Amino acid sequence: MDFGAKAGAYVDAFMKNIHWERVGARFRREVRQPGDVPSPIPTANDHSVTPEDLRSRIERHEDMVVLDVCLAEDLAKRSDMLPGALIRAPERIADWAGELPKNKPVVVYCVYGFQVSGDAVAELRHRGLDAHTLSGGIAAWHAIGAPTVPLTLTEGR
């Protein structure tokens, strides 16, 4: 609607919003040579929590850990986070995963709840943690009007 009959301008604007480096990385991960054994990729439904469920858990003060694992480039564009969340760099998961309690559920989110948080959850589960991804990420959290707090970077970032 914003572009009217200027379809080309719409396509140009759309293409500028694609993060081509991430697209390329995903493509390279999916393209395999003959004989390669594909690694299982967790789906969001395997170990996910809905925003509504997480909101209820937070309101009931359930004992859990909430982790924000957004990439630095995405974090730079954000101004808020979930209440009580810890910010951790997903690329340094080996450095901080051992600090997480194994007797509490861990809910992990990123911007949209797909690749970054999904990969982090898979690794945390591999390490024996009860990890779950926030379905839809912080974008879904915003969509239900759930509360946020100002973004504060911590020592884990």
UniProtKB/TrEMBL annotation:
Top-rank taxon: Bacteria
InterPro entries assigned to the protein according to its UniProt record, in alphabetical order: GlpE_sulfurtransferase, Rhodanese-like_dom, Rhodanese-like_dom_sf
A Pfam family: Rhodanese
Gene3D superfamilies membership: Rhodanese-like domain
Rhodanese domain location: 90-150
Cited PANTHER family: FAD-DEPENDENT OXIDOREDUCTASE, PYRIDINE NUCLEOTIDE-DISULPHIDE OXIDOREDUCTASE
Identification of the protein by name: Rhodanese-like domain-containing protein
Species of the source: Mesorhizobium calcicola
Phylogenetic lineage: Bacteria, Pseudomonadati, Pseudomonadota, Alphaproteobacteria, Hyphomicrobiales
